[in-house]
Amino acid sequence: EQSYMESVVTFLQDVVPQAYSGTPPAEEKEKIIWVRFENADLNDTSRNMEFHEIHSTGNEPPLLLMIGYSDGMQVWSIPISGEAQELFSVRHGPVRAARILPAPQISAQKCDNFSEKRPLLGVCKSIGSSGTSPPYCCVDLYSLRTGEMVKSIQFKTPIYDLHCNKR
Question: Which residues form the BCAS3 WD40 domain (predicted)?
Fold first, then answer.
C-alpha cells in the first residue's frame, strides 16, 4: 500500500508536463505554479458526513492537495487508498493563493451565515468576480458543497497569501 507521499508523487507524475523529462509531449499539459497540502476540517469526517460517505475506507482523514496552474486551480482529496478525487476546480486566470476556511466556533451570540454552504474555499485570483479591482486585490469564497461563489471581498492593496483561523 502506498504512503501519502508516494501517492502524491504518483499523482503529480501524471499531471506534470512531459517537457520537464526531456521527451517531447504527446499533448500540451498545464504548468503547475504552486502546490499546497491542507489539513482542514473539510477532511474531518466527524464534522462532514458527506465526506465520510465518499471516503469511508478508514478512520484516517484524507490529505487535501491544492494545485495552482497558470489559468486556475484544483483541490484534490487523496485518501489512504491513494485514489485521488477532484473536489473543486476553477479556471478563470492565475490563482495566487487559496485556503480552505475552517468552520468558525459558534456561540449563542454568533450565528454562521454560511453554515449551509460550508466547507468554504478562499481564492485570490488575478481578477476578482467583480472584474473592476486591480490584480490580486480580491478574495472570492466558494462553497465546496455546491461549487458556487458565495461572497467576494475586495481589498485596496494586492494580496500575497491567505491565512485563516476559527475566529
Answer: 30-167
